[in-house]
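I have been asked to look over a protein record a colleague put together. Alongside the sequence sits a line of tokens, each denoting a local backbone shape. Please read both lines and tell me whether the tokens look consistent with the sequence. I do not need a full report, just your reasoning and any doubts. I have pasted the whole thing underneath without changing anything.
>
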Amino acid sequence: MKIQLIATTPNIETLVATAVLTTTSGAQPSILFDRMREKPDKVNEIIEKIEVQHGSILEHNRIIWSVEAEEFEILDILLKTKFFTFTRIGSNYWIISGNLRTIIEYWNEQKDDFSKKLLNSLKDIVPSIYSNIKEESN
């Protein structure tokens, strides 16, 4: 199975930090987001403190991959989780989308080749969250 990241929601870690702050602040989410975008160090500080199992704050994003896989491989993933969206775009070619919560939950439950590839695709788009996941896995 081959996967390639093709699109993501922009500023995912900033969105996650904003989601954290909306639970503890009276400010509007859009104002918090703008503040966080201007303070990447603050975003990293917040992200480093969260537990990656805290599901709802990890749902406000979308990550999309192209996948080359046999139909039985896709069916296997579908049977393990209902939270990825699959679209066939050709024989053995698929578009898969999900959010961070789905990826992390799948990783925690399966730790198979597909989950490793998904996790590795996060290195550059959410580096602090990726580091937290790797640390918790050890």
